[in-house]
Protein 1
Amino acid sequence: MTDLIVNGDAEQGLTGWLTVAGAPVVLRYDTGQGYPGPGDPGPAQRGASFFGGGNAALSTLRQSVTLPRRSSQFVLSGWLGGYAAQQDGARLSVEFLDSGGTPRGLVVLGPVTAEERSGRTGLVERSARGTVPPGSRTAVVTLQLTRSGGGSSNDGYADNISFTVEAR
Amino acid sequence: MLNRRDLLRAAASAGALGTVWPLASGLSPAEAHAAALDLGASWDAAPFCLGVGSGDPLPDSVILWTRLVVEPLAFSQPLPEVVEVSWTVALDRTMRSVVARGTVAASNLLGHSVHVPVSGLRPGRTYYYQFRALGKRSRVGRTRTAPVGPVARARFATANCQAFHDGFYAAWAGIAAEKLDFVVHLGDYIYEHGQVGGAHVRDHEGAAVLSLADYRRRHALYKGDPSLRAAHAAHPFFLTWDDHEVVNDYSGSEGSAPFVKRRAAAYQAWYEHLPIRSGSALEPQIYRRRQWGSLLDLTVLDLRQYRSAQNLPDGTILGPVQKQWLLDGISSARETWQVWINSIMLSQLARPGGGYYFTDQWDGFLRERREVLGHVASSGMKDLVVLTGDWHSAFVDDIRPDFDDLSSPVIGTEFTAHSITSGAYSPEWNAVNGPVLGAANPHLKYFEGNRYGYDVYEVTPSRFSAHMRVIGDRRDPASPVSTLTTFHVDRGTAGSYEDPATVGSPAQYRRP
């Protein structure tokens, strides 16, 4: 299984990601001020940094990857979260496209609601696996961070994004 | 009078409804037939239960669509993760003169839906198509490519608002039988709420839909009306959406996690069940501009995905990117019929004494409407016709850049069509309020809210005619279709007029 995502753990800033909307940022777990910290729910191997929505209502990061020939199985996973009882969130998706750009498959993870986080600030793991639709040539992995209601801070959070594909 | 459900049940027991498909594997065939009929639904034979369709015709290409299901209302389908589907395009209904064929993998990751962009076709031609999977053949569909160059005449229909529980789709049967180049769907293809109960002729299959599995079931239920499947098989479609494909009165820019999750499920299911040409099933870009030869330009608008909340000073119904695209299109418009596909009313609909009836429509986005219509006026774009749904009643409006200023010029006409089935106000409300609407809105020329149906538009280089087709009774799936009235717009002359032959037809308001 090969992980096709570059810098899925935000440890290299936004390297590898294309910003297609808003102003996504990379935050540190030692920021404090209510942001997720080392002791909050999240990945065991969380490193120092994670993705956040910045100060835009909608912030979107994307990586388009070429699928290996003879792709068979895939696994998409990520840690997605938000702040306390607010409904800001992170959604991770992969869309499989054929050579003409027609969608052949779609998997959507999250966003994780405040209820699913039990009203706690932190990140929760979500994953899906399946068969790469035959005829797929590229996979578009999109991380969308959304702000609920007013205010300025988009508290959709994500970390440890992974998209692995097995070739026959 | 016999109850229609009893009639259908009798027909099923007599074997007359061979296309009915079981709802769930736990039911015997007879139980499954009865359960489906209780919902007022029947389907084609598996795995093509939901029928076939085509869409977004270009001069050399159309999208062919189907979705494989075995049990239409099951939450998951007993199918392999991937099913190979072959498709064929031919010049004849018997599928002998084949011009294109291929295979495509239908994946569980898109609900085993199939979207085939067939290319290499010839402009202005009728084609037939058919799918094959799991050893079975689908019904044969008919489609048509867009013409190029001079076109003497085009004929198309618009449809909107087809609440399943509010009636049978006699209007769709009418559309299927019409001789048309294409059909436009203006939105509210499904409704998201739960069962309504009461005296309705049929009902939704369950509670309000929230998840992807829910929305798939709801779309499958709606495809359980044979007249809707017949219309999809008969004509290519252009489609936009309104709110009920997701939830009532939503704004696509809302960012709360439960809504973002629901919206993604709804958009994916909408894509899976319709002949959409798009590079994404997650967030399909559905606004687009299409040409029907040199006769007309279609501008398909998306008034949901990018909108802000209503009644904001800087609110937007289009979103900044689509708005700029629309403004640019106005600036560079050809001299031909400019037809906007607009899900929700553009014209002002003011209440007497102030305020508006509904600010979910363009009345809730005043600054943007002024900007767009002001640009139509200042750019000199002519021959604008706006086609609208949503209201469950028919309106004809003069479009002005400033509806409150009667000295501002008429720059186009808006035709708002009757709904397929979705309930309108009562005849009493319409009788009282038709004249009230007319008095408060000097640009309103006509209002009729007691009927259901669709519009057929007949377009020539010199005239754009709107024929209001209406059915007799939503409770009758075979209710006959008639033409209530016809309005015309003459090329080069802004504003509409009613055909003298139908000017005495029933209406609750008609400007003298």
Protein 2
Amino acid sequence: MQDSGIQVLFQGINFVRLLEGLWVSLKLALVSMAFSMVLGFLMGILMAGRNRIVGFVCRVYLEIVRIMPQLVLLFLVYFGAAKHLGIDISGELAAVIVFSFWGTAEMGDLVRSALISIPKHQYESGYSLGLSRMQLYRHIILPQTFRRLLPSAVNLLTRMIKTTSLAVLIGVVEVVKVGKQIIDASRYENPKAALWIYGTIFILYFAVCFPISKLSTVLEKKLQV
Amino acid sequence: MKKRLLGMVLVFMLFAAALSACGSSKTEQTGGGATARSLEDIKTAGTIRIGVFSDKNPFGYVDANGEVQGYDVYFAKRIAKDLLGSEDTVEFVYVEAANRVEYLQSAKVDIILANFTVTGERAEKVDFALPYMKVALGVVSPDDALITEVEQLNGKTLIVVKGTTAEAYFGENYPDISLLKFDEYQEAYDALLDGRGDAFSTDNTEVLAWALQNQGFTVGVESVGSLDVIAPAVQKGNTELLNWINEEIKALAEEQFFHKNFEETLEPVYGSSVNADNLVVEGGEL
């Protein structure tokens, strides 16, 4: 058979290294997403509230996050903090900070839009039943919000998993970087390995993101009233 | 609508303020901020952080067992051994071409050994030690019509890639050679294989490796054109460490260290017929 380059995948511990890289990507995304969920919920509630100043501050934050490329934020946190403030943090930590910063803003906006999409009569009926503000949110508004939020939150998570590949520029060796290392190490003996390695990475991303999307569909159905 | 507009204007102003603050802090940042570790600090810590490439075979790459290897890495290990007594004291940091300067400026590494070509622009931002390697142009041609002198190319067709130093060098200095230009390396190599040109020229490291993989082609001219040197870099102003590296490079010339390094790391890729003196610099002397 012609030398196709697929054997590069199974040389040494190459495949295990790819899986380890995938775990790094996943870990970054999941930890950042956990922070984004908690903080994003708070932010969404604040944004949906009636306080104009709070709303404005949140709006500014959201716009900054949307305007600034994540790469710039990564460089600012990783190199900038060390250069100007003397704070030396690891690449992983810097990535978690930046992705949480980004995720919180996006999540906040999603929560906000989910909250205001709940019809006014839901609030009014709740109050007329004699529920307090806390009880109203706890039993009526948040459960409905959560259901509406699920698809877009899952979408954000899969986006986050894919965006972790940017972290390579601050020294985090994740799955795409491992792939590049493998391709380059075999560049002279197996110039055609690139297709196989990138193909494998594609499948790995799919294998991770697809079940997550599937899970959200299942949950969505389950939570349907 | 009006409120939104006002909001946008405010965001914009905030941004401008933040940007100008960044700008001014950058200009006054010389002594302050992140200062690289001194020689003493490194010795006390017992480890040295060296930035290398992890995907630039054969200078710095990770092999199938996950071990970092290459010409730069070989030197990095020697530095650790001579400075701290053991090769295991080196902590490799994987850098990218685009962030090598940042790594030094933010003091996240002590030394960069990542195939770092010395240029005037870079020398303003980092301090380069003595060179340990040099790169020039190489000319590869088919064995049955081998070009061993650049003069043999007069009146013939030389293939080059647009934007490379080869294009500039031959265009300026050899008007009698007709150049066939391509956008990409792959196209250029294909053209050479098809016989659309008599020879192909680009960085000698590149053509040497290619010739070894392609039977019937040889690099007849291994070094021509302006010479670029590759050197270790440290943070600007870290003179103590810089001097130590310079002394180290001079001392290593005694045992022809970089020739040995060449045999171990580069020869498997470039082949044994290559003259090491065309790539290797001993004792920082060109």
